[in-house]
Each structure stands twice: as C-alpha cells, then as structure tokens.
Design goal:
319 residues, DHBP synthase, Rossmann fold, 11-stranded mixed β-sheet, 31% helix, binds threonylcarbamoyladenylate, binds magnesium ion
C-alpha cells in the first residue's frame, strides 16, 4: 500500500533517493522520478510495466529550467510556451545530453511540460532536478485523475502518492513540436487545436499509430477500460446489446430505451471542459461496476470534443 498525503517534503525525500512517487497535475496523475537519473527512470518503466520504446515527458517549473536541458526553442513553440505554460501543453524540443536516451527512447527531442498545479509546482521548485513522469496508470489502461486511482493500481509498487485532489482538466496534455518550420500536433489533449492555432496559425496533425511511432502513446489500443466499449448510435447499440448489462456514456440529454441501462452523463449541458474532466472517471466507474458493455457516441468534433473522441476511439479499439 502506498501512503497518500499532501506532504511535499515526503515526496521530495523519496524522489531524492531515486524512488518513484505519484504526483498530481492538472491533466492526469503522473508517476514521477528524477529525470537526470537512469536508475530512477528505469524504475518508472518497471512500475508501469511500460515498454522502453515509449518516451517520457519531463516536467519542470520554469522556462529557464527548460533551457538548461534543451538546445533551442523554435520561436513558434516559445510563443506557445508563453501562452499556455503552466498548462496542458507538452513541447517536443531538441535535447541536450543531460537528458538520457532512456527518457526519450533514443529520440533527439525531449517532451517537456510545465504543469499547472500548485503542489507539483512547489515540489519542482524544491528539488534540484526535473521530473520525468508518464501518466500513473498501468500501460494501456485509463489514466488516473485522482490519487486513489494511483493507489489502487500501482500502490503495491510505490511508497507515496502526493494527493492534489481531482484533476481539473482530466485529459493528458496536447503534444506539439516543430518540423521544418511547421507546427505539428502529435497527440490531442487538454489544450484544444483552436487555442493553439490562435497563437501560431494553422497546424498539422500527425497522430502516430504505427508500432514505432514518434509518440507511442498513440498506439491504437490505449486508455482502455477492461469492459468492452462500443461506439456508435446509442439507441442502436442499446438494441444490439439488449441481452447484456449496459453502461451508457452520454453527452447531453439522453433517455435510454432499456430501463436497465446505467447512464453516466459526461455533461448534461454539453460543456466540453466538464466532459473532459468526467471521461476517465466514468470509464473507471463503469469498469468497477457489474456491467457487460459500455456504449458511447462521439461528441461534436469541436473544442475538446476532438481530443475526447480520440480517447474514446482508442479506448474502444480491440486487437
Ligand atoms: O498530461 C500529461 O502529459 C501527463 C502528465 C503526467 O504530465 N503525462 C502523460 O505521459 O500523459 P504519458 O507518458 O502517459 O504520455 C506521454 C506521451 C507518450 O505517448 C510518449 O510517447 C510521448 O508523450 N512522448 C514523450 N516524449 C516524447 C518524445 N521525445 N518524442 C515523441 N513523443 C514523446
Ligand atoms: Mg499515458
């Protein structure tokens, strides 16, 4: 069992002895360790059961700290950093050698983020190294948005989870980089495409899906609950699965046709921010309930609806 608490000093002590600690951020909870220490990094992969070809995001508290371990920041990426850090934005930046290949899986760029959460920012200020941290879920499962999620799934393998309450964004960060002057989004996330385009103009979107992607979190099966998830017209899906216990994940008003269908509403008033916060929580809650299938329909593809649809699609994928 991991201890859950909000004591930065305890978290700091574990991190300084190269142990892995659960940390809150505004997006999802992370599994953090000293980004400058390969033993600590290896422990992250071990605890998460994560393949080492999947690189880690490095978290710090100030752009001046970022400059200490990247070689340069493209002006457009700098504009994004200035607009959205601290926040749900990860930038892929050319790394210095102080960032080991274990962190980047041998890639030349390192993913960097300044998270927007007072506890983690204070912790980062109090230590002399940045923190490498993937989401604190077992590889392939839904990301945790509360300290208790981390404890439940990884508690037997770590000592401490720093509890910063429920995550305010609920979706992982949007990952952005630059190639030949073009700004590219590699993972959709808690910062919307339109917010990014308001700062740097038109971006391209390259969500990698191959077995050796530039952003392997983009593997097709990801963020997946254990209960099978089907996506489509809800009324149709209720008919198709009428012999099963159904959990329906809905957005806006929906009246189920089957009286036994359990409904969870991402946002009754169709608010995308609220839906993002609820998405992973509800998938988890369904997973813990006695149901056979989860059904959901895509949200309108605007604002955070685009990133939410991406997560739904990956959660539904079955190989
Ligand atoms: O919101 C978030 O980004 C959370 C919190 C904890 O910060 N972190 C997170 O980490 O979602 P993770 O490891 O679950 O997902 C990070 C994604 C992975 O798909 C990884 O492949 C990609 O970022 N990534 C990290 N470093 C990269 C790099 N150098 N080049 C390409 N992709 C990278
Ligand atoms: Mg993850």
């Amino acid at each position: 069992m991991a201890q859950i608490g909000n004591d930065i000093q305890i978290a700091k002590q574990f991190l300084e002895t190269n142990e892995v600690v659960g940390i809150p951020t505004e997006t999802v909870y992370g599994l953090a360790a000293n980004a400058f220490n390969d033993v600590a990094i290896a422990e992250i992969f071990e605890v998460k059961n994560r393949p080492t070809f999947d690189p880690l995001i490095v978290h710090t508290h100030h752009i001046d700290e970022v400059r200490k371990f990247v070689t340069n920041i493209h002006p457009k990426l700098l504009a994004l950093a200035e607009a959205f850090w601290p926040g749900p934005l990860t930038l892929l930046l050319p790394k210095q050698t102080s960032i080991s290949n274990l962190v980047t899986s041998g890639l030349d760029r390192v993913g960097v983020r300044i998270p927007n959460h007072p506890l983690i920012l204070n912790l980062l200020k109090s230590i002399s190294f940045p923190l490498a941290a993937p989401s604190a879920n077992p590889f392939g499962y839904i990301s945790p948005t509360q300290a208790i999620h981390v404890e439940k799934q990884l508690g037997s393998k770590i000592s401490y989870v720093l509890d910063g309450g429920a995550c305010e964004v609920g979706l992982e960060s949007t990952i952005v980089g630059e190639e030949h002057g073009q700004i590219i989004i590699y993972r959709l996330g808690g910062l919307s495409i339109s917010d990014i385009e308001n700062v740097v103009g038109k971006v391209s979107i390259e969500l990698n899906q191959s077995s050796n992607p530039k952003a392997p979190g983009q593997l097709k099966s990801h963020y997946a609950p254990k209960v099978p998830l089907f996506i489509g017209d809800l009324a149709e899906l209720e008919k198709t699965h009428s012999d099963k216990k159904i959990g329906a994940l809905v957005f806006g008003k929906y009246v189920p046709t089957n009286k036994n269908t359990v409904v969870k509403n991402l946002s009754l008033h169709e608010n995308f921010t609220e839906a993002a916060v609820n998405l992973f929580n509800y998938l988890r809650e369904f997973d813990d309930m006695d149901i056979d299938v989860i059904i959901a329909d895509y949200l309108p593809p605007i604002h955070l609806g685009i990133a939410i649809n991406d997560r739904l699609k990956r959660a539904a994928w079955r190989i």
